[in-house]
Amino acid sequence: MPDVEGFDEFYRGSRQRLLGFVYVLTGNLAEAQDAVQEAYIRAWQRWSTVSGYEDPEAWTRVVATRIAVSRWRSLRSRARAYLRHGAVETVPPPGTETVEVVAALRRLPEEQRTAIALYYLLGMPVAEVARETDAPVGTVKARLSRGRAALAGLLAVSDLGEAADA
Q1: Domain containing 32 — which CATH number?
Q2: Which residues belong to any copy of the RNA polymerase sigma factor 70 region 4 type domain (predicted)?
């Protein structure tokens, strides 16, 4: 059983110093908080060993520093790749039809929406949708049928509403 009280005391006594140290290294409070949190998680996972060290805070500080440096290197690598390969092409926003279909899908019950997404968007056969949703094949067919009918009604109402406004 880990020494919960010992770790809690260690954490409370060292967290501010460690966060301040890593913040000075990174210059970014959010990055520092993430690195310190990860270091404390690792210290907790190895607390039976770390607590026996002469200076557990030093071990945790080294771990937090390595995590922060690793993240910094990763960001630097991404920046270099960006400079080498250029910006990612912008993706055009969805068309109004897509927005209307998504809005209509959101109004369907979850079971129908899931069946429709698996069947039409992922192209799964009905039997596979049944396995994935843990429902009988007949139930999946009913959900698809009811979902299509509901979508047709929701999309037709949307079109009629627009026509009345014009």
Answers
A1: 1.10.1740.10
A2: 100-151
Tell me the DSSP string of 84-96.
HH-PPPPPPPPPH
Give 42's contacts (C-beta < 8 A, 6+ positions apart). Answer: 60, 63
Contact 68, 32 (CB under 8 A): yes
- Identify the domain boundary among 85, 118, 133: 85
Distance CA 20, CA 76 (A): 23
Contacts of 135 (CB under 8 A, 6+ apart): 111, 143
Same domain membership, residue 75 and residue 104: no
For residues 129 and 73, state if they share a domain. no
Q: What is the pTM of this model?
A: 0.49
Judged against a pLDDT cut of 50, whether residue 166 lies above it is answered with: no
Domain membership of residue 90 (yes or no) is no
Domain boundary among 22, 57, 85: 85
- pLDDT tens string 27-82: 889 999 999 999 999 999 999 999 999 999 999 999 999 999 888 888 778 778 77
